[in-house]
Amino acid sequence: MRTWFITGGTPGGFGMAYADAALELGDNVVLTARRPHLLDDWAARHGARVLVHQLDVTDAPQTHQAVRAAEDRFGRIDVLVNNAGRGWYGSVEGMPDSDVAAGHPAVNSYCTS
């Protein structure tokens, strides 16, 4: 049994799809989200095999807390799915450089701010 740590657990999004697939394999899942209360019903259906934890990947201390919680609950992390990101409407080419540099690449490329 593996433990998956998945960022970006928006209900109905790719993070939740990865989580559901991991659960179907019999694995444990740590699913993180900026608004974890939106995952309460989903988590309740899966019991002890799931840990939902609040995480904004631009907050380093919160990232460390989420990893510690995962390790405390399941002993280790075997699979990391970095699904966190921010939506962007329009093209990067059409945005001012200051807007592009204001966090979007840091979140999507490095998971830091």
Percentage of residues in strands: 15-25%
Overall geometry: elongated
- Strand order across the biggest sheet? 3-2-1-4
Number of separate strands: 4
What does this structure look like?
The protein is an alpha/beta fold. Helix content is 39%, strand content 16%. It has helices at 14-24, 40-46, 60-74, 97-100, 104-110, and strands at residues 3-6, 28-33, 50-54, 79-81. Strands 3-2-1-4 form a four-stranded parallel sheet, with helices on both faces. Strand 1 (3-6), helix 1 (14-24) and strand 2 form a beta-alpha-beta unit. It is elongated, with a radius of gyration of 15 Å. The protein starts with a strand and ends with a helix. 26% of the residues are buried. The model is unreliable at 108-113 (pLDDT under 50).
